[in-house]
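>> Question from a student workshop board

For tomorrow's exercise we were told to take the sequence and the ligand below, predict the bound structure, and bring the output to class. My setup keeps failing. Could a helper post the expected result so I can at least see what it should look like? The ligand is S-adenosylmethionine.
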Amino acid sequence: MKQKNSAPHRHQIQEFAPGTINSADTITTDDAQNIHQPVLLQQCIDLMLPVLQKDNAIIVDGTLGLAGHAQAFLHAASSFHLIGIDQDEEALALATQRLDEFHDRFTPVHSSFGHFTQVIRNLGYQKIDAVFLDLGLSSLQIDEKDRGFSYLIDEPLDMRMDTSKVTTAADILLTYSEKDLVRIFRDYGQERWAQKIAHAIVTDRVIQPFTTTTQLAHLVDYVIPRKNRPAGNPAKRVFQALRIEVNGELDQLRSVLPQIALHLNVGGRIVIESYHSLEDTIVKHFFTSGSRVDVPRGIPEIPPELQPYFKDITHGALKADQNEVDTNPRSRSVRLRAIELVKEIPLKERNKMKHSLHAEGMVE
Ligand SMILES: C[S@@+](CC[C@H](N)C(=O)[O-])C[C@H]1O[C@@H](n2cnc3c(N)ncnc32)[C@H](O)[C@@H]1O
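>> Workshop helper replied:
Here is what the output should look like for this input. Compare the format with yours to find the bug.
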């Protein structure tokens, strides 16, 4: 059953993390429209539409960004309420301006989607009808000066999506042990030269700490042997690994999935766009765990309690076609997956999900 209290006042951004909202006074909403091109937009609308059209549905965009997808959803149907979460204050301020015409159907929230349960409960909801996640960075974050995400621009090594958080990429390079640096470069960057790069960082940082993107990019370029280099910029994998570590991206994703499932109405949908295999594997495993039957072969009839509770509506992952890749290079690596909750999640599975959240310190 849907439980709803009064929606927060228009444009009152809900804060669940310390920090203030920046006024987005240097970038206009027209710019926002051009800065970030939403990936697989029509496919996302089609997957969300049946839920958007439900009367008074509650929809969460957990990665609002510049609201490209959110704006299209709001145009596509007229009676749902959208909660838009982003941990980047500047993106949230721009998105809020962009969605001004929908002010009474939209609640912006500054938080990580990892605090999903807390966010929706603080707004007075117990159940929601759909969640959309478009993971990773927006083009604003990549291109903007001083965010430190790009190995192509010389800027401070920051990489925080939420600038109210304390630890930057420079802090990690200065304080992590060599072993931990190897782990993150290997696990999050799948970097073959993780050991050599980590060793060089730990040796060099004694003389001069790594504070800029260029310093790090030069070191990686120096350390990785020129022959047999994989295609693309050699610093790409190390930058990806650091970004994932700074923002706890995989932990947030692992934690949000059971939280969403536990608050989803039957008939509700989860639609997720991932941009690298580490994210996509987490999503795929979670979706598969609820959409496959785990019974011994040869059982004549599957008991109702063992029937799947998720239906895989994308039948695996959708990708962008060549046309979209040519016009929007960000779409090259996208994997879009969606499921529908077709029945209540069995108690045993709910308890398993709650237990995993408890173990991570996320109370359910
Ligand atoms: C790819 S962009 C979303 C773009 C958006 N769909 C659009 O069309 O404009 C991803 C956004 O998610 C935000 N984000 C990433 N991880 C997050 C998290 N754990 N919690 C909240 N926001 C997050 C980023 O700050 C970024 O603004």
